[in-house]
Design brief:
The complex is a heterodimer of chains A (125) and B (254).
Chain A: E1 5-8, H1 12-24, E2 30-33, H2 36-45, E3 51-54, H3 63-71, E4 81-85, H4 90-98, E5 103-106, H5 111-124
Parallel strand pairs in A: 1-2, 1-3, 3-4, 4-5
Chain B: H1 2-118, H2 125-133, H3 135-162, H4 164-196, H5 203-212, H6 228-240, H7 245-251
The chains are: A alpha/beta (125), B mainly alpha (254).
Chain lengths: 125, 254
């Protein structure tokens, strides 16, 4: 199945870095959103999106709220979600796990870690 | 007897009056020193008040400068990423050209061997031709160039990795900005409440601080290449995903 990623981050720099990293590991299809609110709009308007990579700290709707919102709908209950964030405290990671994020990357990250986490998520799907 | 009693009362009152005067004599210097103290303190208080007002007026500029720094670093990072992207495209073209060269050398070698097989009696001219074309040597150079291109690709990946520092430091700056703005709000509220001579109530500000604390930035953001935090995340996710959601919730229930 061809993957189309939704990359959600309020930092333009980080969106580009995630996008470049995806290209570096062989994924070309992605759309971008600057916060959780925009992400929800894009997600509801594009059925071809089948993987979400999101930051945590964002204005309007945070990454965690985005995850909870996605998980609250039947349509996206099993949509793969990878969180890429600066938050590395145990309680943060546990909170993400409780919100049913599929996997978690602490910034800064390498394309290799990104590939590893995407592969893990796809393997467990 | 009655006159004697009255006189006692008069002397008693005189005694009290004397004590009062003695007390007054002791108190007057204290009052005088309080007045002197107030005389010294009032200008100081005015100075402090002016300083607070001046500091409060400078805070918006400080906050704005921090935002300018964030915007400037974001712009510079974007420019670097543009260059890295352009480099990646050039490297990709070079890689394709080198692959074409390798294919060309392979085809030349095949053609040359075929020519040699078709003309076995060239009296050493074939070896001379083979040596003159230096295909092996050129191919070795191409392989060496491919290694260099690979290294440059790795370096450009490392540049991209290092540029994540911009996002991380911008979150730290946003945190500092938030603190500065909180101080400004508190100072403004303090000045406002003092002018009203009422109690200073900061509970509203504290609630606001709590609400915005983690909204758009992580105050604990750090640029660390140490794998410790990622390993912690890996461990928790590996454990957590083998467990049912109900068990996770119970396990981490506060």
């Amino acid at each position: 199945m061809a993957l189309k990623f939704l990359v959600v981050d309020d930092s333009v720099t980080m969106r580009r870095i995630v996008a470049n990293s995806l290209k570096a590991i062989g994924y070309e299809a992605f759309v971008e959103a600057g916060d959780g609110k925009e992400a929800l709009t894009k997600l509801s308007g594009d059925d071809s999106i089948n993987f979400v990579i999101t930051d945590w700290n964002m204005p309007e709707v945070s990454g965690l709220e985005l995850v909870k919102s996605i998980r609250s709908t039947d349509k996206f209950a099993k949509l793969p979600i990878l969180m890429v964030t600066t938050r590395g405290l145990k309680e943060d990671i546990v909170e993400a796990l409780q919100a049913r994020v599929n996997n978690y990357i602490v910034k800064p990250f390498t394309p290799q870690i990104l590939r590893e986490k995407i592969d893990q998520i796809l393997a467990s799907a | 007897m009655e006159n004697h009693s009255n006189m006692d009362q008069v002397f008693e009152k005189l005694g009290e009056l004397k004590s009062f005067f003695v007390f007054g004599q002791k108190v007057v210097p204290v009052i005088q020193s309080i007045i002197d103290f107030m005389r010294d303190v009032v200008p100081l208080m005015e100075y402090v008040n002016n300083s607070i007002q001046e500091s409060a007026s400078k805070i918006p500029k400080a906050a704005s400068q921090i935002n300018s720094v964030t915007n400037a670093t974001e712009m510079a990072t974007s420019e670097i990423l543009d260059i890295v992207d352009a480099m990646s495209m050039d490297l990709s073209k070079i890689k394709n050209e080198l692959a074409d060269l390798k294919n060309g050398f392979f085809n030349q070698r095949v053609a040359l061997e075929s020519y040699g097989n078709q003309h076995p009696n060239l009296n050493g001219q074939f070896e001379a031709l083979q040596s003159g074309l230096s295909i092996d040597e050129l191919e070795t150079k191409v392989v060496s160039l491919e290694e260099i291109v690979k290294k440059i690709e790795g370096d450009s990946n490392n540049i991209t990795l290092s540029l994540q520092v911009q996002d991380i430091t911008s979150q730290q700056l946003a945190s500092v900005n938030h603190l500065i703005q909180s101080v400004q709000k508190r100072l403004s509220k303090l000045m406002n409440d003092l002018s009203k001579k009422g109690p200073v109530d900061v509970s509203e500000l504290e609630q606001e601080d709590e609400n915005t604390r983690s909204a758009t930035f992580n105050p604990d953001a750090r640029y660390e290449k140490s794998p410790d935090k990622q390993e912690l995340a890996n461990e928790l996710f590996n454990t957590g995903q083998k467990t049912s959601q109900d068990e996770i919730d119970k396990l981490f229930a506060k």
